[in-house]
Amino acid sequence: MHIDTRERNYIVLSVLLMLIFATALMVSAFAYGIQVPVPYERVDPRTVATPGASPWGNPVEERVRELAPNKYEAYILAQAWVFLPNKITIPKGSSLTLYVTSKDVQHGFNIQGTNINMMILPGQVSTLTATFDKPGTYNIVCNEYCGVGHQTMYATIEVQP
Q1: Residue 87 and residue 156 in contact, taking contact as beta carbons nearer than 8 Å
Q2: What is the CA radius of gyration of the chain?
Q3: pLDDT at 17 over 90
Q4: How far are the Cα atoms of 6, 53, 107, 127, 144 from residue 119, in angstroms, in the given order?
Q5: Contact (CB, 8 A) for 91 and 160
Q6: What CATH fold (topology level) applies to the domain 38-160?
Q7: Which of 20, 54, 56, 125 is 20 to 30 A from 26 in CA distance terms?
């Protein structure tokens, strides 16, 4: 069977590009620790904020918990132009696991200064873990247009020394 030289070159180039992309994906995943947010679980968006129905129904001050020294988890609810809780305070060097869901529309979740960037869908719980080694204030912004008050949707993570 005869393959034209140009066609063979395109096939070789395509296979080479796929190998380069697969290598870049492996390096970013293993060497740099980049995580892909996966659906952790499904919840009913109509009842997710109901007290007693889920951790997102707990009072806002109880949604951030210390599991062990320097290990925290936070249950964040995105809803019409607000993240609840809107301020999280942890000590420097802490690992924070975020469980984020929405009860109304699609939202974005980006922690500036980190590689955490998730799309939040109603009823889907997205989770990622990050370690905060530098003290300071990290802003959380909604980077997915969610309506007329979108520009006011933010929260903060305060990392204390």
Answers
A1: yes
A2: 20
A3: yes
A4: 42, 23, 6, 11, 8
A5: yes
A6: Immunoglobulin-like (2.60.40)
A7: 125
Q: Which DSSP helix (H) or strand (E) runs through 129? A: strand 124-132
Could you tell me if 109 and 131 are in contact, meaning their C-beta atoms sit under 8 angstroms apart? Answer: no
Give the CB-side neighbour count of residue 152, counting CA atoms within 13 A. Answer: 7
Reported as a single tens digit per residue, the pLDDT across 64-122 is 999 999 999 999 999 999 999 999 999 999 999 999 999 999 999 999 988 888 999 99
Q: Is 105 exposed, middle or buried (0-12, 13-18, 19+ CB in 10 A)?
A: middle
- The secondary structure of 58-77 as a DSSP string is S-GGGSEEEEETTEEEEEEE
Beta sheet of 117-120, edge-to-edge order = 87-91, 154-160, 136-141, 107-111, 117-120
Token pair of 24, please?
Answer: 């870049």
